[in-house]
Write a structure and sequence with these properties.
The chain is of the alpha+beta class. The protein is about 35% helix and about 25% strand.
């Protein structure tokens, strides 16, 4: 029987202006997921973390993915999955996507790589639907593909891997919770044509800047006139942290996913670390605990850290 252990990274969705279509994998934080076949058709989910997530498969993000894969292949075997989450649920760093993508990736390995990346994304989206009510792939795609991805369409699935510029990512997770479902509910149902045109220009500029490795273009395209002005009110100190990050030399940044995490991109590690210190200090001053991460863009996505046969 095969046993597989995975390192499943956090992801930054939207990349400021690319709501639901752009995402980026980072190195820190990450979840660990361990998989093995069962002789019975049961699906067993075990959490070794302290987040109190449900372990009943139908109510667990990884569990629903495995149920769908089991049904699709008409499997007689089941799966045991042991999950240790370091990506806190509700962080805006792709916690649910990590569980969903990791489940699809791990099951595919046990199946002998019968699924394409697009098919893994398809199954993983059932987990995101359970978590947020929407089958979106902006976190799942970079988790599975690595680097930066553009989700052109989810029906049919059309994922475009983009280049990964040599940039540093600073992310701060203040310990306040913003649920993805709640962050979606406050968004406007209609937007002006003027705002839409401006947003389209930013998205196109950002994708062009990434592909051309045009760092100044990336920086001036990291602007959101539709989502950020509304969601930022849910995040303490957001405006101050963004302004101070730019003063310290960040290219730009904004809300990671639905928040409350905030991310910034920088050309130099020294700049990224100065921004990290400022972010931590800003939340310390208002007595909000926070966790800060500095890493480069993760070009690999999910990584296998152990794969062995068991008797």
């Amino acid at each position: 029987m095969k046993k597989i252990k995975l390192k499943v990274p956090a992801t930054v969705a939207n990349l400021v202006c690319g709501f639901d279509i752009l995402g980026m994998a980072v190195h820190e934080p990450y979840d660990e997921m361990q998989f093995r076949w069962l002789d019975t058709p049961d699906i067993i989910i075990k959490h070794t973390d302290s987040f109190g997530l449900p372990e009943v498969p139908s109510g667990n993000v990884a569990g629903v993915v495995l149920l769908k894969i089991q049904e699709y292949f008409n499997l007689k075997n089941g799966f045991e999955v042991i999950i240790h989450k370091h990506i806190k649920p509700g962080s805006g760093l792709g916690s649910s996507a990590a569980s969903a993508a990791g489940a699809a990736f791990g099951a595919n390995l046990l199946l002998g790589n019968k699924l394409s990346k697009e098919e893994m994304v398809h199954f993983a989206m059932f987990g995101e639907e359970l978590a947020s009510g929407v089958r979106h792939a902006d976190n799942i795609a970079p988790c599975i593909y690595g680097g930066i991805t553009l989700v052109k369409s989810t029906n049919p699935i059309d994922i475009i891997p983009l280049s990964s510029p040599d940039l540093f990512v600073t992310a701060v997770h203040p310990q306040v919770e913003v649920k993805t479902s709640d962050a979606r509910q406050i968004l406007k149902k209609n937007i002006s044509l003027k705002s839409a045109v401006e947003q389209w220009g930013n998205i196109a500029g950002l994708v062009a800047g990434i592909q051309k490795n045009d760092i100044p273009l990336i920086g001036r395209s990291l602007n959101d006139v539709i989502i950020e002005p509304i969601r930022s009110i849910l995040i303490p100190k957001f405006d101050d942290i963004k302004e101070m990050s730019l003063q310290l030399g960040a290219l730009g940044g904004g809300i990671s996913g639905s928040g409350p995490s905030i991310f910034m991109l920088s050309e130099q590690k020294e700049t990224a670390e100065k921004i990290a210190e400022m972010m931590k200090s800003a939340y310390d001053k208002i007595e909000i605990e926070s966790f800060v991460y500095v890493s480069k863009i993760n070009p690999a996505g999910i990584q296998i850290i152990e794969e062995k046969e068991e008797k």
